[in-house]
Amino acid sequence: MASVRVLLLLLAAASAVQLSIGAAAEAAAVPTLGLDNGLGGRPPMGWNSWNHFACNISEDLIRDTIDSLVETGLAEIGYNYVNIDDCWQAKARDSKGNLVADPETFPSGIKALSDYAHSKGLKLGVYSDAGYYTCQRRPGSLGFEMQDAVKFAEWEVDYLKYDNCFNDLSKPELRYPVMRDALLSVDRAIFFSMCEWGVDQPATWASKVGNSWRTTGDIRDSWYSMVAITDQNEPWWPYAGPGGWNDPDMLEVGNGGMTTAEYRAHFSLWALMKSPLLIGCDITNMTEDTKSILMNKEVIDINQDSLGVQGHRVLKSGSGGLLEVWAGPLSGNRTVVALWNRGVWGATISADLELLGFEAGSELTARDVWKHEDVSKPVTGSISADVPSHDVAMYILREAVKVDANAENAESFARFEDVRKVRAGRASSV
Ligand SMILES: *[C@@H]1O[C@H](CO)[C@@H](O)[C@H](O)[C@H]1NC(C)=O
Ligand SMILES: *[C@@H]1O[C@H](CO)[C@@H](O)[C@H](O)[C@H]1NC(C)=O
Ligand SMILES: *[C@@H]1O[C@H](CO)[C@@H](O)[C@H](O)[C@H]1NC(C)=O
């Protein structure tokens, strides 16, 4: 615990200087024990209605989205949660105090949609709030946690996003465990996504409360919002791991407010930060650019890697420190590195291999996960790329020795067990 604190202080103090990723990988073995509901071994992937549709949702939209997830191939590559955000509820509870679906927009009810999602091999998520009302003034779950959890289980819901509007001003540390306990008491495993906007630094206490916790306020579909949110999420990297993830909010890729380069950077960073990959655009109408980003399997694999260690910033360079290097360890002795140009001009960005934790004289192979090709020459000394403004280049590095696949699995497994042990020793008080 103390070492994590010290490390965070160091990280905060050292954001402009070089950090050794070797030390970083060790510190990352001190995250927290995830909520023990069997879910969230990898960051969740799927779609959520809010970023594109806000309150304009209906059961037809959800069905069309389920169909599109399957038709486009998004489902097949892992996007399996279909999450309905705010506004699915009727304006009031029924006479017995039950939540009910809005009879105008969701006349068939939630169970019909979860049946439909399940029939296509997908999972269904809903939304509620740890307050008297949701943010859009539908009934909240505060005081109704047990009754609502029972209802969600009866509807065979798989995921709950739990917001923080109109609360009673008590701490989220008190309110969120009540719903956690209610969900654990019903006969269904429901992913618990805490959306308490980063209040009271949930990374430090939520590991046994949620499978993910928001570290920031809401994202908007702009470069400035995406950058600010990335910076806010970054320092919490040591606390992420299998079972519990930092959540810098849902993806804006495909919504039109950023350039293709900016969306590529957005998606790369979310993948490297082991963030939930919840698509927020209209997937029934995606451009080819949008598809090529969201469906980049090599980038998705970085996010879903078995090690589950969140990557982070290791270097700011160039004038204004706008040329950034982000990196993190992957299973099989591999390392992911992203060269991110936050400046307004194209630039060459370089990362010293020693800075990335490799020994001097190492000879590496590099895979360019956006060009989908191996870098032709062995990498020695440093890796660098010409990166256009706001764009990113991302590579997977590994020592140029043959890796035995069984050794790789054994190593990943041992690493996972380490994380579990350390987490078990850090049982949270809430
Ligand atoms: C969508 O919802 C927002 C508010 O949630 C509203 O301002 C907007 O007019 C709606 N758009 C459509 C097309 O209904
Ligand atoms: C589909 O997306 C394009 C932009 O790529 C937009 O102009 C068009 O209105 C969208 N169509 C629908 C039905 O939303
Ligand atoms: C990872 O590296 C260590 C030390 O360099 C080595 O002992 C181990 O076999 C490697 N694992 C794999 C899967 O290459």
UniProtKB/TrEMBL annotation:
Residues 1-16 form the signal peptide. Transmembrane segments: none annotated. Residues 321-397 form the Alpha galactosidase C-terminal domain. Keywords: Disulfide bond, Glycosidase, Hydrolase, Signal. It catalyses: Hydrolysis of terminal, non-reducing alpha-D-galactose residues in alpha-D-galactosides, including galactose oligosaccharides, galactomannans and galactolipids. Its EC number is 3.2.1.22. GO terms for molecular function: alpha-galactosidase activity. GO terms for biological process: carbohydrate metabolic process. PANTHER family: ALPHA-GALACTOSIDASE MEL1, ALPHA-GALACTOSIDASE/ALPHA-N-ACETYLGALACTOSAMINIDASE. This is Alpha-galactosidase. It comes from Klebsormidium nitens.
